[in-house]
């Protein structure tokens, strides 16, 4: 249960300071609302924690490509990591420094690879074809995405390592390649990305140890990229990802690396969800309350076409109502798309006084919210609003319009 006087998510106190009724009256519903203060604080916290280490932070753009959010994060000194040439172009429109942009994608044809090479960005090869093309074209900043044979994530679909994963080059095959071809001088970086929504540092340490035992003990690379996927606490009982433990283990790894190879590598982290998830709210309106065969449904004027995570992954998002009732009822919260999957996981406790037209705030949608939205059932995508640190409210440019402007240049 979650009401204005009791909410669950970590660090989302910013929602208390917003006049949601006025915002909905001015901009309509549904709308995505972002907090510059929250996102800045999260980005800065991580930067400060790793300041003393030889670490570079690259924001994973796929979590949220809103250009204003990219500006906020890049202003904190982050590079931008993309998984498509379009994310790369969006990133370059923000950062305008090729060395601060990195591309890792499993599905690049030669034409796209050549375009990325011409842009002079960091590229992590995800396949043998990609690696061969990058080496043949003498690209100056090559990384290789390694599959260590295992992965992790909050759902099977978000686990990106192991034999069933489409991502990366198998570590044993890559070891054989190094022994046969000896191209390590042309490869600047080893990269892995284990999945999304990983709650513990342990698997990152396991992956680093696997790289060390099979490759890094014998060959040195300038950069080691451990990817991202750091979890965010969507529920009260969820814990924050332990970056302090990760930092301690990275320090030990770097120290050992330096003893063997004479230098400490640059370590790259790619946080996305952890920075932006709690900085977004989807504001919706209650359209109906109905009871059928003893089961109550509260329906909203938004759904899986605007936030697909609950339907796709059965992901939990707290839903906040503005009432301060002492009487409650049980209900499922359902979306307005023509799909029976469009229901929030788990029966919720909602105010007994809830009525049509009341507002519902879906929390922690700053990551994988709007970016995964669609026009399914011909619904338009929601507008996006950002609340600045000084309290000013601004509507941001629509993603489709922004991307079109970039592609026309």
What would your notes on this structure say?
The chain has two domains: 13-34 and 277-408, Lyase, Ornithine Decarboxylase, Chain A, domain 1, CATH 2.40.37.10; 97-271, TIM Barrel, CATH 3.20.20.10. The chain is elongated and about 70 Å long. With 409 residues, it is an alpha/beta fold. The longest helix has 19 residues, at 243-261. Residues 1-10 have low confidence and may be disordered. The strands form two sheets. Strands 1, 11, 12, 13, 14, 15, 16, 17 and 18 form a nine-stranded mixed sheet that branches. Strands 2-3-4-5-6-8-9-10 form an eight-stranded parallel barrel, surrounded by four helices. β3, α4 and β4 form a beta-alpha-beta unit. It contains twelve helices and 18 strands.
Domain unit count = 2
CATH class identity of the largest domain: Alpha Beta
Which architecture name of the largest domain does CATH use? Answer: Alpha-Beta Barrel
Mean pLDDT: 93
Supply the helix-strand structural class. Answer: alpha/beta
Record field, number of beta strands: 18
Silhouette: elongated
What is the overall number of helices?
Answer: 12
Succession of helices and strands? HEHEHEHEHEHEEHEHEHEHEEHEEEEEEH
Distance N terminus to C terminus? Answer: 48 Å
CATH H level of the largest domain: which superfamily?
Answer: Alanine racemase
Residues in helices, as a percent range: 25-40%
Low-confidence stretches: 1-10
- CATH level-3 fold name of the largest domain: TIM Barrel
Q: State which percent range the strand residues make up.
A: 15-25%
- Radius of gyration (CA) equals 22 Å
Largest sheet: 9 strands, mixed
């Amino acid at each position: 249960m979650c009401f204005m006087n009791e909410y669950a998510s970590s660090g989302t106190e910013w929602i208390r300071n917003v006049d949601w009724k006025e915002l909905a009256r001015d901009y309509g519903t549904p709308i995505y609302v972002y907090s510059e203060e929250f996102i800045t604080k999260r980005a800065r916290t991580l930067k400060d924690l790793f300041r003393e280490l030889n670490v570079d932070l690259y924001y994973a753009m796929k979590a949220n490509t809103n250009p204003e959010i990219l500006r906020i994060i890049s202003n904190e000194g982050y590079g931008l990591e993309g998984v498509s040439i379009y994310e790369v172009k969006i990133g370059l429109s923000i950062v305008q420094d090729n060395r601060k942009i990195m591309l890792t994608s499993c599905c690049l044809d030669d034409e796209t690879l050549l375009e990325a090479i011409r842009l002079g960005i960091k590229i992590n090869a995800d396949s043998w074809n990609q690696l061969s093309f990058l080496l043949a074209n003498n690209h100056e900043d090559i990384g290789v995405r390694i599959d260590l044979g295992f992965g992790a994530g909050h759902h099977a679909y978000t686990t990106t390592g192991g034999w069933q994963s489409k991502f990366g080059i198998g570590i044993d095959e890559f070891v054989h390649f190094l022994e046969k071809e000896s191209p390590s001088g042309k490869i600047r970086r080893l990269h892995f990305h284990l999945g999304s929504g990983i709650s513990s540092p342990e698997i990152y340490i396991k992956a680093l140890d696997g790289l060390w035992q099979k490759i890094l003990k014998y060959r040195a690379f300038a950069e080691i990229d451990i990817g991202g996927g750091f979890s965010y606490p969507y529920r009260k009982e969820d814990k924050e990802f332990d970056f302090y433990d990760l930092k301690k283990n990275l320090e030990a790894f770097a120290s050992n690396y330096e003893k063997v190879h004479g230098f400490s590598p640059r370590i790259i982290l790619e946080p996305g969800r952890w920075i932006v998830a709690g900085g977004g709210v989807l504001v919706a309106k209650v359209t109906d309350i109905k009871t059928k065969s003893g089961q109550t449904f509260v329906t909203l004027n938004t759904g899986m076409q605007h936030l697909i995570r609950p339907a796709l992954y059965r992901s939990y998002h707290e839903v906040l109502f503005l009432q301060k009732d002492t009487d409650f009822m049980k209900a499922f919260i359902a979306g307005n798309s023509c799909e029976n999957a469009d229901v929030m996981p788990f029966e919720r406790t909602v105010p007994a006084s809830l009525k049509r037209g009341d507002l519902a705030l879906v929390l922690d949608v700053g990551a994988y919210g709007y970016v995964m939205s669609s026009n399914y059932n011909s619904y338009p995508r929601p507008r996006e609003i950002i609340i600045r640190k000084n309290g000013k409210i601004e509507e941001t440019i629509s993603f489709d319009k922004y991307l079109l402007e970039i592609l026309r240049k």
